User: Fold this.
Amino acid sequence: MKNLFLSLIAAGMLLTACNSKQTGSATADNTTTADAANVPVMKFEKETHDFGKIKTGDKVTYDFKFTNTGKTPLIITDAIATCGCTKPEWPKTPVKPGESGAIHVTFDSAAKMGLQDKQITITANTNPAQNRVHLIGEVTTK
Assistant:
């Protein structure tokens, strides 16, 4: 009898805990949906740039231009490339809704050969938090 009583109490507590999590989840989802409508949006003119053929040792640069099409200021916190030969630079100040900016990328082809595809990952207060652009081309010998 004692085991039956303890089992019923445990089952009741378990059901109560499950119900309270569902209620919390629904509230969190509603908040997330409301916030998602107001987040900044990075809209790039081009997400890929082909620099063509260059010789080993040449440096190429390109500006990935974007516009904040969201409703709140866009804040870029980081931009990293897949290789140390590619250096991205980004605006350090917030980009207001409707305004434009650029991610300035420099690729140094020293010690590189053949087809190249350098991915730049931009982290910002967008949803999703990361956007990617590509710099592609071919490095030939001098």
The helical segments are 2-36. The two ends are 89 Å apart (CA to CA).
